[in-house]
Amino acid sequence: MKTAHDLVAAAKTRVQEISILDADQAIGEADLLLDVREADEYAAGHLSGAVHISRGMLEFKFSSNPALQPRDLKIVLYCKTSGRAALSAVALHEMGYLNVQSLAGGFDAWVSAGKPVVKPQSPSFE
After folding, report:
1. What contacts 24+ positions apart, CB below 8 Å, involve 21-28?
2. What is the pTM of this model?
3. Which ranges of the chain have pLDDT less than 70?
């Protein structure tokens, strides 16, 4: 029986991962920066300009949203450490999307590199 780790390892052999060093350029050239983490993870902090679609809803959201129909969209996606993003990239490839990249190391690598994160504003009681 395969484990989640096995599935992620297999997915990573099939997807194009971009390094943190190349991330800014790839994100700048992308039509869509996609965060596939859970809603609470996204709400706690995310990359500027990222759209949230959790991994579990990915295929359904892409199938039902006309703006996401063009198969030549340039998509960069990420999750916490890159496992869910790799699985998501494979799913999008299987749906016919041609330009899908995954951020190596995910959100954690982005934060470790000292790159900016959008965080919700705390309420002010002043």
Report:
1. 23/76, 23/103, 23/110, 23/115, 26/76, 26/101, 27/76
2. 0.90
3. 121-126
